[in-house]
Amino acid sequence: MTKFVVTPASETQRAAWLGGELPAVEKVRPGLWSIPVPIPINPLRYVLVYALELPDGVAIIDAGWNTDEAFGALCAGLAIAGYEITDVKGVLVTHIHPDHYGLAGRIREVSGAWIALHPADAGLLRERYDDEFIESLVARERALLVRSGVPGETLDELAGASMMIRHMVSTALPDRLIEDGEQVGLAGWDLRAIWTPGHSPGHLCFVSPGRRLLFSGDHVLAKITPIVAVHPQSGPNPLADYLDSLAAVRRFEVDEVLPAHEYRFLELAERVDYVMAHHEERLAEIEKVVADTGGADCWTIATRLTWSRPWETIPAFMRRAANNETLAHLAWLEARGRVRHQAGDVDIWYSMES
Q1: How many other CB atoms are found less than 10 A from the CB of residue 313?
Q2: I want to staple 64 with a disulfide (CB 3.0 to 4.6 A). Which of 70, 105, 113, 214 is the partner?
């Protein structure tokens, strides 16, 4: 597949990303600021929080991890824009992953801001982050990995791989639930929510038709593609949801895409087309591996795919993500009659000719 390179909307922001540095706080447009908030132990390095000026303060899109470093960076970024953390009136959370939602509760505590989520993600919060439910969630993840064929010696490590980041979330139930197509109601902004499930069941993007901007969260990024995986809190076919969601945002005519990571860029439709083609290529690769093996479990299939680095060097958390992402592609292929699986203690996937 011919590689498509987007045009960066900010050369300095792109240079910082490529150089492994934290980009500067930027005034993107009148009344709009980009504030990088660092995230630890993560190759993404930072989340881009967007501050939207209001007559009486600011609203922000996403928040960052719940660490003192992240909170300090957000406060410092707001100060550059001329605001204090107490001026935050609302936190629009694109989805409930820790680097987007983690600080929302702490921000509300100091500012009184409301927190907004899509209902599909709001309904997952307690099971995902409350101590009384976490053992059950880990057990369900472990059962999924068993059915995928994950070797016994790595099962416990992979099942609990995300536990190390739970403390980076200040659990806070939302004050507002925002539905697909809803006008957010920020003074001076024509911001509308677009439900874009796939990376998360309740992922939201926000479009401003008048300013021709799309705040894309993790849904559409400049260089990488978000993880779309089957897991205990996903739907049965998250890749289908994701591809449908890509088509939903492609129709918007915008001048700039403002993602939560990497850097801002210009070409929405072309980037969406490239990501869709990438998944088609991945689906074809998985379909071929299934045919070549004559029947294999998901873990075995994942180990035979092309990844950005050798399988043996991929950390445990990312191996789990790779397995579950492979499972999402298999579910998509099965829904379209291109592969089938035989259920058992370990599920085996076959081509339709087998």
Answers
A1: 9
A2: 70
